[in-house]
Fold each of these.
Amino acid sequence: AVALVLVVGIPGNVARFREGANGLVAQTQFDRWFIPSVPRNPIVKQLPRSLEPNSLDPDLTVGWLVDSVPSGRIPAPRPLTPTELANQTLILALRPSATAQPAPCRLLRAPAIRVLHKGDSLRVSIGRADVIYLAQDGGHSLPTPLRTSPVVALAGPLRLRLVPIPGGSNTPTVVCG
């Protein structure tokens, strides 16, 4: 009976291991293009040198990456598509903030363009919304959920499209900032 219990658990454990390994492979592939291109992103000049682009490695900072490019420690990345560059810019420049105080809140009935300057913050108060970074070169990021906790612009100006996501019971979307 004990052996049967152990054998029954094996397929589930193998499946969990496989899921974890797939996630690690995906993260590694993401880091393979993301990290080497960070110091070459035009927005990096506006970012704090202490910014950690990868939450999995707190010792890796924007300053270290920028300083390491001339020495060749950071290999040249493959060329990024406009969407990849816009995604990276949004990830780097719009960060969670525990101290940000968003501006007054407004009802978001339809997609709207907002421009955030360095230090401006944004959050969803009611409902749900996606944020899309609109790059000057015409590229745009993939939609990213805007959270109820504030995010702050570490660089700017950032031209963003805010898109309300319809919810049940005709819940309105209210965005602050």
Amino acid sequence: MTDSAAAEPFVSEPHEDEPQPASRYDDMAEGYARFWAPVIRPGAIRVLDLVAPDLEPAGTSAILDVGSGTGSLAIATLKRWPWHRVTGIDPSGGMLEVARDTADQELPEAVARRFRAEVASADRLPFDDATFDVAVSSFVLQLVKSRSAALREVRRVLKPGGVFAWVAWLRTDRAFEPDRIANELLDEAGFDPPEPDRRPGDLASVSSAAQGMRRAGYVDVRAHAGEVEHAWDADGYRAFYTEFDEASLFDDLEPGERDEIRAKLLERLGALRPEQLTLRLPVVYIVGRAPS
């Protein structure tokens, strides 16, 4: 294991031949960090248990965080193993700015300098072959244009025998009562409820996730199902829905109309039982190795 990914921390400009960062994610970076990152963080950091055998020993490993976003997984890695180095890539420079700031706030200065952030896409990584000892990723590979291309690209930049562990959403039709109530209120107010988020990239099954890794050239592949659980309270979900999930709609409302809908939403959410306010979504964890 080496310091091959060591560098001064920075957020790079996109490469000239790369697509520009996704402005939608740039614009939503702070809201994402405030409202959504805490929901998925517990599920994300469980990925680290899958790579712990490779990261516990002494010596410095070069770790790649694919789709680092606001930095939850990268920062958790350095909190757990502060002697390693983490390079986080993401197509959104705005997200990485938040990640860099959060690392500076939550990590000792010497450890924060072990986090490097670079604007890049998962399927076009700007690194030489066999650069990293370990790669991790959380809730990203359901979003990429070609998951198979991204898996192959991560394998390319891993050293022989290097491990890649990741988590992504499993497909589900599971309903969430607070969502239904919020959309019902918008309908009553004369607004079209948001289109259902079908997330076509969500994984079909645990077995298909494992098969995709094997087709991309990984060996010793293992996969298992899990669940992300988050207990909202009424006020917390209202803030999430009105200030992040549907913020653009609520920003455009007249103040009186906005206040009325917010008050009705809080009232109806307050009538729910705690279990109805608890979000539970299925996920799949996958780990495999680059061939030696």
Amino acid sequence: MRKGPNLFGIIGAAVALWLPPATAAPARDGAAGEAPARQAGEDRWVASLAITSGVTIQQQEGSAESSLYREMTDSLVPLRLPAEGDDLGVSPFVGGALELMAPALPIPTRPRPFASAEILSSFAADRDLALDGDPGCVRGPEPSAPCARDEDGSRRVAFGEDAANGQGTKTTGQVETVAFGANLGVAFPLELRGRQLRIKPSVGWINYGVESKGLVVDAECDPATRCTDTRAQPGFLRETVLTTSGSKRFNGIGPGLDVEMDTGRYGPLGVSLFMGGRAYAVVGDRKLRLDTSEMFTDSISDPGSDPPVLTDTASGRFEVEVDPWVFRAHVGIRFHWLGD
């Protein structure tokens, strides 16, 4: 998270340049950090609607392993090599929030408790967390070769299991589109260069989902050097394709801090700009686990007529684990209903 301060600095500079010149402050010198005389609406309950955008950042790890159980020999062997890896998920989002702020408390600094609820829409990419090979469909080693299952028997040169392309293992992760949040905090009013500000520490909750997909593609041929028919000789291919997908929702709680600046009032409507950041500690189980299997009864399982047909079972196991912390940075605009 070393880049966090740079991000906030850039956002703060952009907001400062964009803002119009401040109107004259009440009879005060406008020193930074000085408590203002009064803020609009501080003697009443104020509801507001915010539009916000930003990013969430979380490290994720993925793994995959697969095996093949042969009934004929009562043995369990690896199907593909295990794969594991990780990636930093940066998920842009836009969203909206409703906030209710209480009247100022009659104590020094006149703090104002507030509560808010929000809904976010993320635009996260699907990331490869664990990858081995190039899983897709089993095909020959030639460039632009079609899937082996689609060949018509016109192949001249046979290819074997080791030369077949399209084999491999993959586990992906993606943050789901919709997330929910809520915050409880206290707003402390300040005045900066004639502008009304609020420093808003809070405790927040977030609920978000992660979707994962697992894929294993393997080729087993009989004989091992001939995976498909050629013009001269027949071949046999057992193409194992294990696919699965699933999702899980996670909950996080943690501290946050927003800085909000009033920019104008239009009748009963007040407008402010804000920026902030939050950190959420994920609670509960942080792992998403997926399993899948496929059964085969074919000539590789049953090379002869006696014993009767036997069954092979291919299994895949995939796992995604999210980091204990989710970090968030955001900016936005808020519309307050201040009344008369």
Amino acid sequence: MNMSSTTRGKLILAAGVALFAIGQSLLFIIIAPLAPKTGLTEIQFGTIFGLANIPLIFTAPMWGKLSDTHGRKPIFIIGLFGSAIGTILVALALEYGLSGSSTVVTVAIYLFLARAFYSSTAAAIYPSSNAYIADITERSDRAQGMALIGGANSLGSMLGPAIGGGLAFVGLLFPMYVAAFVMTAGGIWAIFSLTEPKKHVSQNNKVNIKFTDKRLRPFMIAWGVFFLVFISLQFITAYYIRDVFGYTDPADQMRIASIALASMAIIITVVQGVIFQIFRPHPRTLLRLFGPSFVIALLIIALAPNIYLLIFGYSLIGISFAFGTPGINGGLSLCVEAHEQGTAAGILAAGGTIGPILGPALGPMLFSLSPTAPMLFGAVTFTFISFYMFSVKIPEA
């Protein structure tokens, strides 16, 4: 792959991941405040979304292995189109629930099926994109390459709330249809412009990596616990704003939550998309920094006396995210062989499903005990994770 096609491939991957992140961030911003209007309680809503993410455990490794055996490009494209269709299905399920002509049980079933389809197909995006980056970057540039994908994800997470707020005047669910449209456009662009990198699988080089592979264990633990805490926090953000700071209007909750998540995404985008493209930190260094920075951010959010410090705490989560994603993905990539990249990335993504599965229910349950319980739980948990990360050995580039 020559330099021009390598650069083009990175840009298309980054754009595709950004488009996916736009849709994903819209789900968290729009759906949570609307859930009570469909008749679902906060815990019921979180449980439905958590259970609907169970397919990720099976589909993420499957898509990763398929990217090793059948190429990165087709799997990446499947992920984009699948996430677009899934976003539409979730929006339609919510439309039905908000119509007032449905039972709570019916709404729950439709939301579960729509989200399950979304999670099953969107699971193809990260294994294929991470493996693609591993294919086209040198080992010394691995964290830099993974940071580019992480920065694109954060840019999309930043644009999602902006799109949601800017288009909400048309209808609260209208931004989701717009997100589905742009994801479809990204898939079409990838079909015609993305070049398949060199394949690393041959008949004598089979992929046999499994969940139990000890090389993956520390990265799966860090990834899974991080997303467990982070997603549980996302699911209670609107409720926290409502109960602690007194903003009872769902529109106000969406606006403040959007600003908080956008501030976080701005930090991630700048650090990963700019700073880490100039400097080249080793994944080992990033792995040791992301835990302590997450603990500090969670404590600031829990103790914030006003909205401004709450938003500042979320921006500091951006620092942790900026360290964590290239540290974990880059470190894992250096610990496995070239022909195992897609499968390893898929298994890592599956390990991270503890967050999407348990987080939507854990957050509201802890919140019911105390509004600050989700943050304090995360801070204590990540104190232990931070010490553990210092024992992880990553090969030199």
